[in-house]
Amino acid sequence: MNFFKLQNKAKSQTFWLVILFCLGLIILPYIGAHIITFCIDFFTLPKNRSPATFPLVLKCLTVIIVMVSLYKYISLRQGGRVIAIALGGRLIDKRASNPNERRLLNVVEEMAIASSVPVPHVYILDEEIHINAFAAGHTINDAVIGVTRGTTELLTRDELQAVIAHEFSHILNGDMRLNLRFTAFLFGFIFISQAGFVLLRLGFGIGNKKGGGIIPHFLVLAVALLAAGFLGQLWARIMQAAVNRQREYLADASSVQFTRHGPALASALKKIGGSEGGATLETAMASSYNHFFFSQADTNLLATHPPLEKRIKRIEPWWQGGFIEVDFSKLIKKEEGEPQENSNIRDKKLTAAIAAGIAITGTDAIPYLKPVTLLNTNVTDKEQATAKLEAICHEPMDACYLMFAFLVDTIPSIRAKQFIAVKNTDLITDYYQTLSLIPKQKHLEFIEKAIPALKNLSEEQYKKFKTTLMHFIQADNEISLYEWLIYQLIIHQVDGQFNSKAIITSYNYSNLDQLRDEVAIMLSGIAHLTEDSDYQKRAFGLGSNVMGLYTIQLQEKPNISQLTTSLQKLQKATEPVRRKFLQGALRAIEQDQQVNMKETMFFRILSLCLDCPIPTLDCTVH
User: What is the pTM of this model?
Assistant: First the structure.
């Protein structure tokens, strides 16, 4: 399978289909306005007809579609969890004991590490027995992976990995954001149709307590709205299906690229083809979010996915058409109700969780248990410390204290100031000592692993956590580059979970030349990571040349305020511009053929904050 060729072909076809879709969005309101205007004129005497009717109808129709679509888009900006919950998904606890769920979490984490993106939350659709999966979200920071129960129980590990790799491709290729936009525009046309149905009911007198007869004006206008809405929906669904089919080909090719195991993906598709009902879902919401899924989730005539046969043929050209039969009797029926014993255990856990939560927030809002085994576990070597930190990263409260431990100052007097803000100082000390047993080069890895757990905090807990975190940072009345990087990474990846306004949705800069000052500041910051002035000049010059900014000048070492302002503007640049900047930054860092720890951390966090994740650089300490 030549996946690079297939990827380029899918991307090219997607581009032209999106252009065609945009043209349709411009033309359809005109057609709809003509239909509605015709119906209005039908009941208007010729002498009373006004040439201003059509422009007014067009304006009103356009405004309604845009406003409703915008409302839907904003509601979906809350992240992929909104879609996962709408589909009946259950967030899988990181402490899951179910072997299938544990395996799924491990596979998702492996793929996240392989693709250098933050580990997404994972949801399972307990009521769905067929094989299917989806990725949803606005950015890589609020993305979620969802799978059906059938996927976890009917697929082998290799097949599951191939399906998850397919979904990660959607995350990396920006398909999630494209799907959200399609969904929002489609909702605008659905609203017009729904308004037509309401008028239709009123026109027939349905719901009128006083009885009443038929109202012709309402009936004709209802038909007009239904026609306008239907045409819009039809066009949107046709284009949505056409674009999505190309993105599915792209995701299949990317899955093979990620796993280097095409037969596993083909086998998963064969199992879907060999199961009764295919990949269909029982939930009524399946048709609304069909384009998010791994395979066709409903029986809609407008298929959003290519035929299974074509997908398999692209992976295995020699395939003769045989599917793999699936035995659904293997699925374990979901138990109804919870045993009393389990309920009592849950209550005890909740009580312990509340007590743990008070230690940091002073409130009773934390529904998470801190495992007692982690509180006083003494470790003496690197292997034990690594295992302990792995467990800590999966617990929301432990993750908070681990972040504090990363920021503990070496000077006793400053450390004492830091500890004023928390009650459980022994836990921070314990984690600080545990961190001392692993190489500092590994610290960033555990910072990244702990961040997903922070998203499980309540909004109140997260606000308190940020306040405490800033107290730790400012205890010495200054902010170091290390502290600034950790704080920027946390707020960029977690803030959007609690405040949709924190998610960047508009990109105002399409050229690096528009960000000359910001690039000069950030590139100067990178150059000053080395002490040698000659290296600084050389790094800055090489980096700026790669970016095509030949006249910007190396500046004095920028302060934290300058770095913050520059980063915020760079985050609002388009993706090609951000990637071009990172290419120049990487050239500046590697100009001396050595990469120190500061450079490694700076570049990795910078790439994550710009939503262009790049694998951690190999670190050769000076």
Answer: 0.73
